[in-house]
Amino acid sequence: MGGGRPLSTSELLLNLKLYGKLAGVPEEKLTLMALRRTAMRLRLDEGEEGEMRVPVRQGKPFRPGEG
Question: Are the beta carbons of 35 and 14 closer than 8 angstroms?
Fold first, then answer.
């Protein structure tokens, strides 16, 4: 980490499980969807108004040799 690149999904999940374990959260409750929902709930609890929008994702075809 600290190399100036984004975390992969597997790296993010590994960190989530590591810190969750230290906090005493059962591993089966530590999912990326649970993290997203918790973040949304915290934002709503803090009074964020308006509709929360899901970012629009654009498809990106593989280049020859990728994937």
Answer: no
Q: What does the pLDDT look like over 7-56, one tens digit per residue?
A: 899 999 999 999 999 999 999 999 999 888 888 888 888 887 766 666 67
- Give the residue extent of every domain in the chain: 9-45
Scored b (16 or more CB within 10 A) or e, 1-18 reads eeeeeeeeeeeeeeebee
Cα distance between residue 18 and residue 42, in whole Å: 21
Q: CA nearest 39: which of 9, 7, 16?
A: 16
Token pair 């992969």 in the structure block, residue: 8
